[in-house]
Amino acid sequence: MAHIHLEDGAFTPLWIIAWSLLAAGLVGVTLLLMRRQRVPPRLISIAAMCASVGFAVFQVEIPTPIGPVHMNFTPLIGILVGPGLGSLVVVVINIFSAAIGHGGWGMIGANTLVNVLEVYLAYYSFRLFKTKLGRGFYSSGFGATVISLTASAFFVVLIVAVSQIQGSQLTKEEMVGNLLVLAALNTAAGAIEGVVTGYVVAFLGKVRPDLLGGQSRSSADATAPSVISEAT
Fold this sequence. Notes:
This protein is mainly α. The chain has a single domain (13-231), classed as Orthogonal Bundle (Arp2/3 complex 21 kDa subunit ARPC3). It has helices spanning 13-35, 41-58, 74-99, 108-132, 137-163, 172-207, 226-231. Helix 4 runs antiparallel to helix 5 (137-163) and helix 5 (137-163) packs antiparallel against helix 6 (172-207). It is globular and about 55 Å long. The protein starts with 12 loop residues before the first helix and ends with a helix.
């Protein structure tokens, strides 16, 4: 949901290189860690499906007076395929998005860092809520999504504030103030995405719990809204 919608030339070459190297290093470490474990073919298929669905949803922008917002289901991707494959999925989504003009090519590195943060936070938050705190699938999915998207919204503010936008007539204080308003808007949109993700996770937890780390449905899942039970 958080995404830097700036065109090429907004950041100086120094910051484009810096964010790109950080993203490349993070993805490189992810690949090295994944080589040490066998990834089931089924999980790779799920990751491919997540990439296609995530890319499609990513392009549906909701216009607002201060900029577009959208859902991208990166928290759901993290919950379904984990932080390793999830990181690779968001790299693919960002590359294809830049190819059709959804953010500049120079923004791929920064946007990858933002989306990888969402994937990691969602994955570990979901398992914290579900396994450690014993919450239901709906509340775990909702909580993990809100936490990850709120953090990434303010991470975007940090990246843009540090990099600054070339040619902008705004002072740094004015820019940060506007970005904080946009972050608040993205946080509100993140709550909506949290509801959607919560319903999806609750449904999968009922019919295919193996897709959520093999966790079985328990009485705690009764906390999911009754609409899920009625719909299934």
